[in-house]
Amino acid sequence: MKIAFYGGTYVRNKDGAVRSMYQLVSSLLADGHEVMVWSPDVSEGGCGGEQVNRMPSVPIPLYTDYRLGFYSASTSRQLDAFGPDIIHISTPDIIGYNFLKYGLKHGLPVGSVYHTDFPSYLKYYRLGFTEPLVWAYLRKFYNACDVVFVPTQDMKHRLEENGVTTVGIWSRGIDAILFNPSSRSESLRRSWGAEDRMVIAYAGRFVWYKDIRVVMEVYDRFMKGPDASKVTFVMIGSGPEEEELKRRMPGAVFPGYLSGRELSEAYASSDLFLFPSTTESFGNVVLEAFASGLPAVVSDEGGCKELVGEAEAGFIEPAGETDAFYRSCTRLIHDRALYLEQRKRALAYAESRSWPVINGALIARYRDLITARRGDG
Fold this sequence. Notes:
Layout: E1 2-6, H1 16-30, E2 34-39, E3 51-54, E4 57-59, E5 67-69, H2 73-82, E6 86-89, H3 94-105, E7 110-113, H4 131-143, E8 147-150, H5 153-161, E9 167-169, H6 186-191, E10 198-203, H7 212-223, E11 231-236, H8 242-248, E12 253-256, H9 260-268, E13 272-275, H10 284-291, E14 296-299, H11 304-311, E15 314-317, H12 322-334, H13 336-351, H14 355-376
Domain Glycosyl transferase family: 187-349
Domain Glycosyltransferase subfamily 4-like N-terminal: 15-175
Organism: Prosthecochloris ethylica
């Protein structure tokens, strides 16, 4: 197969969605397929076997880590020269819509992926009134595709409830070579001042739509309670609310944005994962935490609850309920037998999430779509 692949960003390890893209491209290349990537935001090297085209772009106001790109006539010429068998769209933005139109015009099957639950972000920016308009656009976009892949049953139901009829499941895997308990570093824990403490970790962007308010309030509860000397909070990541977090959490450790071996070492050197976000379509960071041996405390809204529920490796608490998140964290800190059992379940669940097997299902679906389209022709 020749796959034309579009993503709004293609910077290695930028976030969980991009790590999934890289894993998919790696699987496609390993399976002998030809991949050409287009993105306005790229890093050098890629996976090593695909051709990457950087598209013209400008920074997005108020969200400068990401870029707004532009589709031009030269993009169509590049697609013509490549001659794809299928179009893969990872971002349903204006460029993605142009890739969709190209596929429809040329009679090509088009697959898309619902990496990010954009409608759930709107309320955090006081734009909840626009949600019906956003869903109207997404419904039109995804129903024009042959398939839109979501990572969980919860997200499948969410799209179907909003009128999307082309939904399939493509879950997520984990790089068990990178993320595993053997990366634990006692010297790193000493640098955090956490030799004899339980480390409660958060990993992700420092933005309100990740429900970092709950993290700050759980921190406050610990610092004012009897366990203040027993825990250290480690906040892995970066984002526009970083200064507010540092102000509200003066005793927490902020190692910054981490990737690769530094990220896996930080996970494995922690003990418990606190992630109250309600806006995740899947929750790659939860799976990374599981693979590192960390039980997780997550929200009952969004994709993370499906992971924790299936693994039985942590607690699922009502969205925004600080007291419930605090109680679950203290329970895992004080009940050693419970903690060790949930750690064991987390590791076992992560071991079952092989990227080659998970990506193989998507690749097989794409083969079927191409075969069916050629048969129709």
